[in-house]
Amino acid sequence: MQKYEDKLKNILSDVATCETYFGEFYSLNEIKVDPKKMPIIYIDFLGETPVDNYEVSLEFSLYIVHAAFSKNENIRDSKRYEIYTLLEQINEALQSKPVLDSQLIKSKGSKKILDAKSANAYITIFKKNIEFSINTNQIKGSLVE
Fold first, then answer.
1. CA dist., res. 135 & res. 125, Å (int)
2. How many angstroms separate the CA atoms of 130 and 136, rounded?
3. Considering the entire predicted model, what is its pTM?
4. Which has more confidence, 110 or 80?
5. Rounded to the nearest 5 degrees, what angle is found at the Cα of 130, between the Cα atoms of 129 and 133?
6. Omega before residue 39 within 30° of 0, cis
């Protein structure tokens, strides 16, 4: 699974900083935002689902994060619009593309999961789920009669 996550990071790193998700948004009070990394996309592997004996579907969540470090409403508005543009760029980067030898990526849509003020920033986070299928080559050799 690691090679698929790494390739997904590579694809999305053309859009924004991209890292693995390690529970950074578990608690609003614990969120630490690095202004140098904004905007950022976190990738979280959710799991696998067998399609049949030869194929498995991998599902990932993308956490798209942007922050405004100013109380100025105009600056906060511009950062909000930047995240909309970022969502469009992610859609374009993933549209009709495979990850390595996978089937094409299927987007399950996006949803705002956080729009709040933390200690040092106004943070907006969208969650976007995607999935794609890979060949598992589970059956090796030939049939015995």
1. 33
2. 19
3. 0.87
4. 110
5. 145
6. yes
